[in-house]
Amino acid sequence: MDLAFILVKVEAGKDMEVLEEIRASIYYSSAIERACATYGMYDLFIEANFGKEKEREDFIFNVLRKIPGVKETVTIIPTS
Length: 80
Description:
By secondary structure, the chain is of the alpha+beta class.
């Protein structure tokens, strides 16, 4: 499995809109284990377990970064 922690910065006031869009994505039921709003430097936290690296790339580049209001993402890939 391809575990990833994704931190997201969004435009002010768009946190819940973006979170709902993430939760509505096809990846929410299959790969995303947790998606929640946070306090601090980043606005949203996503924990996902993708089947393959290609699925992670597809979610980040073709789904997440195309959601209106998303300004920046940081992906953390933990080692064993």
